[in-house]
Amino acid sequence: MSSSALVVGLGLNGLGVVRSLAAAGIRVHAFDDTMGPYTATRHGTKAKAPLAGEGLIEALAAYRARLDHDPVLFLTREDGVATVAANRDRIPGYRIAMPDHDVVEAMVNKDRFMPIAARAGLAVPRTVTLRSADDLALLEQLTPPLIVKPSEHVAAYQVRFKKAYVFESAADAAPLIPDMLAAAGELVAQEYVPGDDGSVFFCLAYFGAESDMLAAYTGYKTASWPPRVGGTAGCAPAPEAHARLAADTQAFFAAARFQGMGSLEFKRHAVTGAFIMIEPTACRTDYQSELATLNGVNLPAVQFADQMRLPLPDAQPRHRFGWRDPGAVASGAVVPKSGTGWRAIDALWRGDDPGPWLASGRNRIARKLGLAAQR
Hints:
Blueprint (H helix, E strand, L loop, with lengths): L4 E4 L3 H12 L4 E5 L12 E4 L4 H13 L6 E4 L2 H9 L14 H8 L5 H6 L7 E4 L15 E5 L4 H6 L4 E3 L2 H4 L3 H8 L2 E5 L8 E8 L5 E13 L5 E7 L4 H14 L4 E9 L6 E8 L7 H5 L4 H10 L12 E4 L1 H6 L6 E2 L2 E5 L8 H20 L1
Parallel strand pairs: 1-2, 1-4, 2-3, 14-16
Antiparallel strand pairs: 5-8, 6-7, 6-8, 9-10, 9-12, 10-11, 11-14, 12-13, 15-16
Helix pairs in contact: 2-3, 3-4
């Protein structure tokens, strides 16, 4: 029986998915909207296509028309998840691991997933939702410092603002929040859980049709960029936390009746040591999901096997490798290259697949030369 996978989005996240699928011997094709340096990977075939919206729907239909089988779909971005979730009836002929649309919407909204966490019995930061400047008074219900971020991914917000902001008081937050609201439409404000970036943990997992966890791997951030509020700049295995966080992750996604790729982020309270759930990632791979593959738990291969009704790959967890984003390092992130029992693998460079690293270097040199020519 013919089989293949389609990966939508070839950023650093998607590159990790393509490499993971190729390592399992799975034929893979990838869409990318810029055809940037990550498309230089030797694995799979690539095509330029929109990664969200009506353009993605049309590209999926055109690609499927060329095949004699139903490919397994892998998503790497929130806007792609939103597009597919809202248009499932317009995307026949794909094997898609995703729950009902209302579940997806709850997962990607930082306000609406809170009731699910409560049903699962998980500790979460005290949170208020801000929809207008009149809601600023709600901040007085929280104990500072406060972290404020958009309820959902909004492209217009990302152009102007950071992913999130930490404020030492409600008064400090008040001047910026109206502009943030104008761009995002809705914000959530939470009590900031004390602890440095090394206190942030995550459990990466894949769930079957009955919300059963078919595979999982747990890690922690060794650095974020920007510090305190940014994405993962580096991460490493956290086997000592796996039993606890995997159980909490299973409980959360079971309470949501979820199917597909999902992960939870937690922060360990610097004073109490308790793990506080921060937010989920749903129906797509997480930015640092390749950490699991590097340590013997190939989650994309698990999803492929589950969707194809094949025996699941044998996961043999090990804890020897970390993951390090060279782009964050170049921007200023201080990311350790090793720790107790592990050494970091560059997320871009691979000796057996140097193309993305070489292409990225050429682009970086070209940008510097261009800037120099403008001076």
